[in-house]
Amino acid sequence: MKYTPSSGKIEVAGGYRGHSVYIRVTDNGSGISEEDLPHVFERFYRGDKARSRAEGGTGLGLSIAKWIVEEHGGSIQLDSQPDHGTRVEVLFPRSKRAEP
């Protein structure tokens, strides 16, 4: 929400894909530059330093998200284009429910 204008759009979708559960979040916000994409999951990484200071944050959100997803045996992928938006997809393995 921080990087999507008030007139923008954020979509959240989820479902099953094979033996995985997926969650996808897509926006049409400011996007992430190609040079920043390889670093977005690094702790404390901030792409646009000037914008980051004005809007707060520590650069930990995506690194924490990646850690949580991987601790649950999943994966996280991010695709983005400046001025067109970002798509984040998380996959978690499906597991059988424990019998009561």
UniProtKB/TrEMBL annotation:
Q: Any keyword Flavoprotein?
A: no
- Where is this protein localized, as stated in its record? Cell membrane
Q: Which reaction equations make up its catalytic activity?
A: ATP + protein L-histidine = ADP + protein N-phospho-L-histidine
User: InterPro entries, from UniProt?
Assistant: BphY/WalK/GraS-like, HATPase_C_sf, HATPase_dom, His_kinase_dom, Sig_transdc_His_kin-like_C
Q: Provide the transmembrane region boundaries.
A: none
Predominant location? membrane
> Looking at its record, which EC class is this enzyme?
transferase
Q: Which GO terms describe its cellular component?
A: plasma membrane
- Keyword entries, A-Z: ATP-binding, Kinase, Nucleotide-binding, Phosphoprotein, Transferase, Two-component regulatory system
> What processes does the entry annotate via GO biological process terms?
cellular response to phosphate starvation
Question: Which Enzyme Commission numbers does its entry carry?
Answer: 2.7.13.3
| GO molecular-function terms, A-Z | ATP binding; phosphoprotein phosphatase activity; phosphorelay sensor kinase activity
Give the protein's recorded name. Answer: histidine kinase
